[in-house]
Design a protein that fits this description.
Blueprint: H1 2-13, E1 18-20, E2 23-36, E3 54-69, E4 72-84, E5 92-105, E6 110-122, E7 126-141, E8 144-160, E9 163-179, E10 185-194, E11 204-214, E12 220-238, E13 254-274, E14 279-291, E15 296-310, E16 319-321, E17 324-328, E18 331-335
Antiparallel strand pairs: 1-16, 2-3, 2-15, 3-4, 4-5, 5-6, 6-7, 7-8, 8-9, 9-10, 10-11, 11-12, 12-13, 13-14, 14-15, 17-18
Length: about 350
């Protein structure tokens, strides 16, 4: 299938030269405006706070560089973020993030790697996150994969809810699935939680699924959904005696424990429309339903914006692949002589 795709690309493009790029870099500037009724639906902050109902602007400047050689590949991402909330009492957020993703291809079907990152946001309080997750990927086919990631996640706050400094740690697992039934449809799914909840994941988990459709011109639309669940035990005590009836000293202390379950249901719709090779319009809407034993809360978020991206030329000394075109029995064939990477960037 991969060879046929290569031939199709060559025939459509009419190109006879392919460049083997070890480095590829993309710089993007995103800016969007939106409105949310819960800070949890914020595109980056994602802290539960139903009192923060505000219009906002979110701007990010990110750079990503990708390098590969033989069976090794690494991706580095870094950038700065700025988010003013138009209701000034909620403050203006600013921060930065950095991500690293390394992979080593053991075989055509197995890959091992490591993901890590750090982010920092500052406004009325400071929040810092950093994490590291070793991972293993199984490529069932050229279009389907399963991935397992596990590792620690650290979170630190300063001046949050009257506390000068606090921190906590979670050991997280992630199960991911992705498949492309054809070149237009993409299906992804994931399940995550803390390791201490295993094997009974009903104590707490986060599940998600996404179905996306990609058009040939780069336009895409995706439908996303998910369920988060959290359980906690609540114990109540009843003390007997102390009144006219039953007699003094009568009755015994009794305690009952009830397991309560909270759930968050999420649904979203996103769309991307490229205007040209540099500019892309995007929009999205999200809905959330939070259910507890005694209450039900609904929230939503809408946003839209524009993305400007370009690929700076950092390496001009690139090797080339020159296909040799042959005519054999009325069929067009391609023969490529190349001693470098197996993959080629088109």
């Amino acid at each position: 299938m991969r060879i046929y795709l290569l031939v199709i690309i060559l025939l459509i493009s009419g190109s006879t030269v392919c460049y083997s790029q070890h480095w590829q870099t993309v710089v993007s500037l995103d800016t969007r405006v939106g409105y949310s009724t819960n800070q949890y639906l914020n595109p980056f902050l994602s802290e539960w706070n139903t009192s923060v109902e505000s219009t906002y602007n979110f701007t990010s400047l990110l750079g990503q560089t990708f390098w590969h050689r033989n069976n090794h590949s690494i991706s580095l991402t870094g950038g700065v973020l700025y988010e003013p909330l138009f209701e000034t009492q909620f403050g203006h957020w600013k921060g930065a993030l950095g991500l690293v993703d390394y992979n080593y291809r053991l075989s055509n079907s197995i890959s091992l790697g490591l993901e890590g990152g750090v982010s920092h946001l500052s406004s009325n309080y400071d929040r810092t996150l950093f994490w590291a997750q070793p991972k293993a990927t199984w490529f069932v086919s050229s279009f389907t994969l399963f991935r397992l990631k596990m590792g620690p996640n650290f979170r630190m706050y300063r001046n949050y809810q009257g506390v000068a400094q606090s921190n906590d740690q979670f050991n997280i697992y992630n199960l991911e699935f992705e498949t492309w039934p054809n070149y237009q449809w993409q299906i992804t799914a994931g399940l995550s939680g803390t390791l201490n909840n295993l094997p009974d994941i009903t104590q707490g988990f986060n599940s998600k699924v996404s179905i996306a459709y990609h058009l040939r011109n780069g336009t895409s639309i995706s439908l996303n959904g998910g369920i988060q669940q959290y359980q906690f035990d609540q114990t109540t005590s009843n003390t007997g005696g102390g009144g006219n009836f039953p007699p003094v000293g009568g009755g015994q202390n009794t305690a009952s424990t009830v397991t309560n379950t909270d759930r968050i249901y999420r649904l979203g719709l996103n769309g991307n429309i490229p205007l040209n090779e540099r500019f892309t319009l995007f929009t999205g809407v999200k809905a959330l339903k939070y259910e507890t034993v005694n209450a039900s809360i609904n929230d939503y978020q809408v946003s839209g914006g524009v993305r400007f991206s370009f690929e700076p030329t950092l390496n001009t000394s690139q090797g080339t692949i020159t296909p040799v075109w042959d005519k054999n029995m009325g069929e067009q064939q391609v023969r490529i002589e190349y001693s470098g990477m197996d993959d080629c960037t088109w």
